[in-house]
Design brief:
399 residues; alpha/beta; 8-stranded mixed beta sheet; 6-stranded mixed beta sheet; globular; binds adenosine-5'-diphosphate
């Protein structure tokens, strides 16, 4: 059974076709600049040559149509016809409190997702456009929604309630939701396998460190806390997002710089994080590490501040779980930066007795334990695979 996994953004659409039985990737690709001049499709069949097509894509329906044509193409395609695409799994950013698990997309469920638009106005509407485009072009093919927030719905109340008047929770559902849930679920499950323990019997901290970054505490197979909040702005310092902040800073900057709330939110989302801390040097950790290597203080400042915040959350989540068996690193930075992993573990967490194996820490692209200490937590690198998680859930609900 083949599952098409769709991750639809406002002007982009990423896809993977996965054989859900043997979990092999059949093809993957990306549509960029949808609705903007210069749109293009990049399509990579597994084992074949990458195809790039610059074609106008006025809307997402046109993009999905191009993807389906590419998959069925006589020469470079991977299936004979659309009949060989048996189900579609959609990544959906916000499921509010309504969706605690992946769900078959009926008309009623789609309406429920629309009702969550308020909570993720930049993301959910784009996800829905992708759903509607697939519905139009593949009528009758079952579709499943996999929510970024769902895995975190097991958090206890003390972890998700904010210290503001409770009526804002009851009236507007303002609370911690958390994001990257599909990644935290995938990595924590895999960590239990590497530990050789039952998932229901271990304490795992997952550090998803990419452009967007979040930490989660997974105790006995359930998320008990996570660093992102009502929106993905809270928690860690990210590529361009500030993470945790004294809320009074917003008013302070507004007055000093004569700025509106909207302008300040743009600063906190797009001009802050390691980009802001490094004085505008870069949001990309490769550039920051390069600058640090050359003795540029701006790079060091950003990397240390970022790493310290991650370590602080690891400490906090040991409290949330009363201990920890494994600390896992994943996503762009987590998977690819031995330097950041070493700073977090060796500079800021020496009390935990972690000893990193330099050779293992320098490896890339595999699930690996990089610590050698007998006592204390094991440190792991586990490349995330959100698409595979989406395909698994879609298969489970539609097979
Ligand atoms: P997102 O999905 O949130 O956009 P990713 O998980 O793809 O982000 O992570 C992207 C980030 O990973 C880049 O901004 C870059 O800083 C970082 N990254 C990628 N490769 C490396 C590397 N070799 N060393 C350090 N950082 C890297």
């Amino acid at each position: 059974m083949n599952v098409l996994v769709i991750n639809c953004g406002s002007s982009s659409l990423k896809f993977q076709l996965i054989n859900a039985e043997n979990e092999e990737l059949i093809a993957k690709g990306l549509c960029e600049r949808i609705g903007i001049e210069g749109s293009q499709l990049v399509y990579s069949p597994t084992g074949g040559e990458k195809v790039t097509k610059v074609v106008p894509m006025p809307d997402h329906t046109a993009a999905v149509k191009l993807v389906l044509d590419a998959l069925c193409d006589k020469e470079t395609g991977v299936v004979k016809s659309l009949d060989e695409i048996n189900a579609v799994g959609h990544r959906i950013v916000h499921g509010g409190e309504k969706f605690a698990v992946s769900t078959l997309l009926t008309d009623e469920v789609i309406k429920g997702i629309e009702e969550c638009n308020d909570l993720a106005p930049l993301h959910n509407p784009a996800n829905l456009i992708g759903i509607n485009a697939c519905k139009e072009l593949m009528p009758g093919v079952p579709m499943v929604g996999v929510f970024d927030t769902a895995f975190h719905q097991t958090m206890p109340r003390e972890a998700y309630i904010y210290g503001i008047p409770y009526e804002y929770y009851t009236k507007y559902k303002i609370r911690r939701y958390g994001f990257h849930g599909t990644s935290h679920a995938y990595v924590s499950r895999r960590a239990a396998e590497l530990l050789g323990k039952s998932y229901e019997d271990c304490k795992i901290i997952v550090c998803h460190l990419g452009n967007g970054a979040s930490v989660s505490a997974v105790k006995n197979g359930k998320c008990v806390d996570t660093s992102m909040g009502l929106t993905p702005l809270e928690g860690l310092i990210m590529g361009t997002r500030s993470g945790d902040l004294d809320p009074a800073i917003i008013e302070f900057i507004a007055k000093k710089e004569n700025k509106s709330i909207d302008e300040i939110m743009t600063i906190l989302n797009k001009e802050s994080g390691v980009l802001g801390i490094s004085g505008g040097l870069s949001s990309d950790f490769r550039d920051l590490e390069g600058a640090h290597d050359k003795g540029d203080e701006a790079g060091t400042r950003a990397l240390e501040t970022f790493s310290y915040r991650v370590a602080k959350y690891i400490g906090a989540y040991m409290v949330a779980m009363n201990g920890v068996d494994a600390i896992c690193f994943t996503a762009g930075v987590g998977e690819n930066s031995p330097f950041v992993r070493a700073v977090i573990c060796e500079k800021y967490l020496p009390f935990m007795g972690i000893k990193l194996d330099t050779e293992a820490n320098n490896k890339r692209g595999e699930d690996i334990i990089i610590s050698t200490n007998e006592q204390g937590p094991k440190v792991m690198v586990i490349p995330t695979n959100e698409e595979l998680m989406i395909a698994r859930d879609t298969y489970a609900l539609t097979k």
